[in-house]
Design goal:
Pfam families: ABM. This is Quinol monooxygenase YgiN. Keywords: Monooxygenase, Oxidoreductase. It is a single chain. With about 100 residues, the protein is α+β, with helices and mostly antiparallel strands. The protein is about 35% helix and about 35% strand. It is built from 3 helices and 5 strands, in the order βαββααββ. Strands 2-3-1-4-5 form a 5-stranded antiparallel sheet. Strand 2 and strand 3 form a beta hairpin.
């Protein structure tokens, strides 16, 4: 199993639009092959930080998710609503990769 933690600092003035857009992305992601869970929420420690926790069956499924058409739309939509790039941590087989 592959775990992913993705954290995105949101511009406060775009927070509601960012969350609404991500919820739409979530609906499509949950339909993908190998997606066990995919959930995004505002951080309990920072109201302008969005945290996504994902679980995937395989790395191949996760890689396919990154290439999915709705993810391209999401990346374009959300790009102007961030104060910094998303930090992605991929956890599998007792190792952590950070992007």
């Amino acid at each position: 199993m592959i775990y992913v933690i993705a954290t995105t600092p949101m511009k406060p003035e775009n927070k509601d639009d960012f969350i609404r857009g991500h919820k739409a992305c979530t609906v499509e992601t949950l339909k993908e092959k190998g997606c066990i869970s995919y959930d995004g929420n505002v951080s309990v420690n920072n109201p302008n930080l969005y945290v996504v926790v994902e679980r995937w069956e395989t790395r191949e499924d996760l890689n396919a998710h990154g290439r999915a058409p709705h993810m391209k739309v999401w990346r374009e939509y959300s790009s102007q609503m961030k104060t910094a790039p998303t930090v992605i941590e991929i956890i599998s087989d007792a190792k952590v990769e950070k992007f």
